[in-house]
TrEMBL record:
Domain Metallo-beta-lactamase per the UniProt entry, residue ranges: 67-296
SUPFAM superfamilies xrefs: Metallo-hydrolase/oxidoreductase
Entry coiled-coil feature ranges: none
Organism: Lysobacter panacisoli
PANTHER family, per database record: ACYL-COENZYME A THIOESTERASE MBLAC2, METALLO-BETA-LACTAMASE DOMAIN-CONTAINING
The name this protein goes by in its record: Metallo-beta-lactamase domain-containing protein
Presence of the UniProt keyword Signal in the record: yes
Keywords: Signal
InterPro entries per UniProt: Metallo-B-lactamas, NDM-1-like, RibonucZ/Hydroxyglut_hydro
Source superkingdom: Bacteria
Record has Ribosomal protein as a keyword: no
Length: 383
């Protein structure tokens, strides 16, 4: 479990070593590194999704190095952000996108969960708006300040931690080079890995000066940020993608920002809580949102995709439970599970996305469902 999560985070935090092509993203500018990157759909864009509400999302919704979506909500006395992006560089670009739609200061950033692609943009945001509260669930605060994120410097950049992080990027670089050296890749896979090399090069730039910002305000169940027009109800609906998930409900707009309970087109199943996940999504559905703002991917105007994810969670659990009961080993269960019909429902026959559906959903979620069926605890991994 832990190895898999670490592997995901290395990839989701990685880029390629090519010093000759490095270029600085100056604080306060949105300028990307030069090169063919914009066509890869990596850089987030901002879209108005309701009056006074915006979604900052990557135009190409799947990358093996993803950046979490950011929701921007304008209240009378300032802006509330849901999540912060995945690196200091992404955070700088988010600051510029936010400034492009409102002159108000950011007064609070609520973090949906502890994974790096949602929190590591905080430095740029709190440097620009130092009075902003950083709000998390108590459980997520424990991850951010404790063992789960022990690899990251706290409160300020640190050259030793940065060097260790860069080494992990070198590992991801080697993985991509080795993979691209294989002759039997499908064309879509080759294009996907080549794009990933470009993105990881950008990511190395973006992650310079990396550090974690500590939460300033915590809650266990719910916290309301009141406002005459756009109140925000922060809420822990139960465990799902992590044990401390936070979602944001905007009752006046009937909008639900879900964090990674909902990720499109390929859901992420690392160290998840299978039984609780479907229940948590149903608790969100019970509010009857008309606008769903996922942790990755575009805004959704109905709950068709939510239903599909609930069905996937239940299908995976139902496939694993009887095999675990027969006392098969995890290896045997992995070999027997076939989610290819579900995979087609999510990603069609695209070989690139199929590969990552297997890696980011099937493998980790089968592992989690196996642990659950055997009564073993699900541990949150190391970042
Ligand atoms: Zn994410």
């Amino acid at each position: 479990m832990r190895t898999k999560l670490a592997w995901f985070l290395v990839l989701s935090l990685a880029c390629v070593t090519t010093p000759a092509q490095t270029a600085t993203v100056a604080p306060g500018t949105a300028a990307p590194v030069s090169g063919p990157l914009p066509r890869d759909g990596y850089f987030q864009q901002i879209h108005r999704v309701a009056d006074g509400v915006w979604l900052i999302a990557q135009p190409q919704p799947f990358h093996i190095q993803p950046i979490g979506n950011v929701v921007v909500i304008e209240q009378r006395d300032g802006l509330v952000l849901i999540d912060a992006g995945g690196s200091p560089g992404a955070g700088r670009r988010i600051v510029e996108l936010v400034r492009g739609v409102s002159d108000k200061p950011v007064k609070a950033v609520a973090i949906t969960h502890w994974h790096g692609d949602h929190v590591l943009g905080l430095p740029a945001i709190v440097e620009r708006w130092p009075k902003a509260d950083v709000i998390t669930t108590t459980t997520t605060a424990g991850h951010l300040t404790g063992r789960s994120m022990k690899a990251y410097p706290k409160g300020a950049p640190d050259s030793t931690a940065q060097a260790a992080f860069d080494e992990r990027l070198d590992g991801a670089d080697a993985f991509l080079r080795d993979t691209l050296a294989k002759p039997d890749l499908a064309r879509a896979e080759r294009e996907g890995f080549e794009a990933s090399q470009r993105l990881f090069r950008q990511y190395r730039e973006d992650t310079r000066g990396l550090y974690l910002v500590a939460p300033t305000r915590m809650f266990d169940t719910a916290l309301r940020l009141d406002d005459p027009q756009r109140p925000v109800e922060l809420w822990h609906p139960g465990r799902a993608n992590t044990d401390g998930d936070l979602v944001a409900w905007l009752p006046a707009q009937r909008a639900m920002a879900t964090g990674d309970l909902l990720v499109a087109p390929v859901p992420f199943g690392f160290n998840a809580y299978p039984r609780d996940w479907a229940d948590s999504l149903r608790a969100l559905q019970a509010k009857r949102p008309t606008l769903w703002l996922p942790g990755h991917g575009a805004a959704m105007h109905d709950d068709a995709y939510v239903q599909r994810v609930i069905a996937l969670v239940e299908q995976t659990r139902a496939a694993v439970a009887p095999l675990a009961k027969e006392r098969l080993t995890l290896e045997q269960v992995r070999a027997k599970i076939d989610l290819s019909d579900a995979r087609v429902r999510f990603v069609g026959d695209d070989p690139w996305l199929s590969r990552w559906f297997d890696r980011y959903w099937t493998q980790p979620f089968v592992d989690a469902a196996y642990r659950e069926a055997n009564g073993q605890p699900i541990e949150q991994g190391e970042g």
